Amino acid sequence: MTDLIAALNAPVADRGTGPVRTGTPVSRVDGRAKVTGQAKYAAEHPAADLAYGVVVSSPVAKGRIVSIDARAALAVAGVIEVITHLNRPKIRSFDIAYKDMTAPAGAPFRPFYDDRVFYSGQPVALVVADTFEAARYAASLVELEFETEPFSTKLSANLDRAYKPKPLKAGFEPPPSEKGDFDQAYAAAPVKMDAEFYSGVEHHNPMEMFASTVIRGDDGHLTIYDKTQSSQNSRWYVSHVFGLSKNKVTVRNPYVGGAFGSGLRPQYQLTLAVMAALHLKRSVRVVLTRQQMFTFGHRPETLQRVKLAADSDGTLRAIYHQAIAETSQVEDYVEVVVNWSGLLYACDNIKFDYKVVKLDQYTPIDMRAPGAAHGVHALEIAMDELAYELKMDPLALRLKNYTDKSPADDKPYSSKELRACYALASEKFGWADRPLEPRSMREGTELIGWGMATGVWDAMTMFARASAVLHADGRLVVSSAATDIGTGTYTVMAMIAAEALGLPLEDVTFQLGDSTLPVAPIEGGSSHVSTVGSAVIGACQKLQKTLLKHAQKLTDSPFAKAKMKDVEFVDGQLRLKREPSTAVALTALLNDSGVVRLEEKFLMLPNMLKQRKFRRMVHSAVFVEVRVDEETGTVRVMRVTTAVAAGKIMNLKTATSQVTGGIVWGISQALHEESYTDHQFGRFMNHNLAEYHVPVNADIHAMDVIFANEEDYIVSKLGAKGVGEIGIVGVAAAISNAIWHATGKRLRSTPMTPDKVLLGEP
């Protein structure tokens, strides 16, 4: 951790000076380390006698490995070994279930387990050499022979095999039972809509490739730098699979170059790197290629159907939401897709259906706002369609059916400032000037359209531990095995601790990314601030009490009879609120007490009995302006205004950045991203960043992010919720609705490419 702490403890001029308060915009404390190259990622940590592994992938989608001829590869100078299922080291057990903090639950894919091939791109060999170049060249010489079997990778061709999955995944809430009588209510309602929606496969593609550097000590201890969203999750996996004591394995991930859910569970390069290190008794690094980044999970291809019915005044009478998504042959991957339709709008008759289909692909994995990115998309387009059937403003329809209780289970929300989001965003956007009819606005060759949608996501809190150490020189070091995947965890946790003890930010260091630190959950689901942040404030509050006790013991102490409510921590001092001049510096307090360091630890356990009484959600309102060229089908997103209710905002700058990033991804989901499968070969064809389209600077224009005033102390001790996922939810739907308003063409599949805009959808 020495290099990490040195990088974080940058000079005062680079980190900002003076007191800091949560809710203000603060630049990242790790920013200097990243832009100067001091921040080292998983494939950048040096080691003596380091070997390099390159993965050989299966070109077939299903079958058995008949033979692996590695003679030519082994003849290359510098090649040490070619590891396969035939010569891999002994493994205690691959038949393990992941812990609750991973996704999905169940027995995962087991690399090099046997001769079976389950999907195209599956790792079948690892070439290890003294140099990366030798390993890469030798990998091209490995000759493989397969006995192929019939396979299927097309969802639409296998809908007859759809089934209801068992609710094994932690965090998966199966669709609730039917409320009321949907069929009767739908039949009786005067205004209806019924539509199908399609969402193609998407891949995460973080900038940092998945990599694992396994450094073997002389005593056999493995120090692993892994691309993961939880160092402790990877440590647990390695210990159990390979039968190693947890004291023999340390996993670190101080910096993670993006993940978006792809690092929630250990990926196969970790398994293979550890295999090679144990087999060869030396340090090994395995880095996947960009093409191989398309071989370990994706947002699942999904078909949906939504039916809505309403009275003539817009009162919702019936909601039906069905989804069929892909999973793998190995395990069931499940998402909360349809449930969102029972969480937003008042309705007495609601019916859900969610099924999966086994295909010969790798198991899908969580991707930013899993389930909601698809489910809310379909619901919000359906609401827009219903509004036009009613000849009603889409925002007015949503306000007409606004509810302060969850329609599916009648639970109150722990907090819900969605109405404020509608008001703030619509006013900023100028929604009141929007003409109702499509094709009403034009400039030159472009049609102009305005659309809107609602966003919703879970406000989750898990358990975590944190320690806080105050040193005699005034430095505060707070620790938890959290992860910063680029979201600003380093900064926000330091801000929380600095504010609690009244210290300048430059005197506070937050340690994360090490499996030996106090336990923290996986960094996912937008839960890190509410969870780890609550543990941090808990540890700091215990420090406050300990410091007051020390102050009370001073000779002739003016704090002798003071209670916690009577004091405050400001400018590095403990002082009386009513007499600010009565104060003692924390450094003086420790020195006078003869204490070199004070340490307090805190276990944050959410109050589940209390939380279960409420629906805990994050909400948003998204307003979009598009311009559509009728001759080319090109869609330009010119303006996006998003208002978010996410509890108390800890760092206005990084929170705004998170939502802005989500908006960009929502634009990408709407107009650009899709992984195309050649079903003849069962493989993804555009497995690179040249053909897998994502937005560039020219695609992104004006974006406004507004935060509604909200605090929620049911969700967390801080009053905070999460902002990581909510930014993407609803954006693609708002764009689709804006395209309709511009052109009169309703597009229900993503991405909405120019050909679809030109031709429309049936």
Description:
The structure is a single chain. This protein is of the alpha+beta class and 762 residues long. Helix content is 24%, strand content 24%. The strands form seven sheets. Strands 3-5-1-11-8-9-10 form a seven-stranded mixed sheet, sandwiched between helices. It has a five-stranded mixed sheet with strand order 14-13-12-7-29, sandwiched between helices. It has a five-stranded mixed sheet with strand order 15-16-24-25-28, sandwiched between helices. Mean pLDDT is 94; it is low at 1-16.
How many DSSP-defined strands?
29
Work out the helix count: 18
Low-confidence stretches: 1-16
- Give the overall shape: globular
Give the biggest sheet. 7 strands, mixed
The first-to-last residue Cα distance is 58 Å
Radius of gyration: 27 Å
User: Strand order, biggest sheet?
Assistant: 3-5-1-11-8-9-10
Q: What is the arithmetic mean of pLDDT?
A: 94
Structural class: alpha+beta
Strand content is 15-25%
The helix fraction, in percent, is: 10-25%
Mind sketching the topology for me?
Blueprint: H1 2-8, H2 12-15, H3 31-35, E1 51-57, E2 63-69, H4 71-74, E3 79-83, E4 116-117, E5 123-129, H5 132-139, E6 143-148, H6 182-188, E7 191-199, E8 211-216, E9 222-226, H7 231-242, E10 249-252, H8 268-280, E11 284-287, E12 302-310, E13 316-328, E14 350-359, H9 372-389, H10 394-400, H11 418-429, E15 441-443, E16 446-458, E17 464-471, E18 476-479, H12 489-501, E19 508-511, H13 528-552, E20 567-570, E21 573-576, E22 583-585, H14 586-592, E23 597-604, H15 608-611, E24 617-629, E25 635-645, H16 652-671, E26 677-678, E27 683-684, E28 702-707, H17 731-743, E29 749-750, H18 754-759
Parallel strand pairs: 1-11, 7-29, 9-10, 13-14, 18-19, 25-28
Antiparallel strand pairs: 1-5, 2-4, 2-6, 3-5, 7-12, 8-9, 8-11, 12-13, 15-16, 16-24, 17-18, 17-23, 20-21, 21-22, 24-25, 26-27
Helix pairs in contact: 9-17, 12-13, 16-17
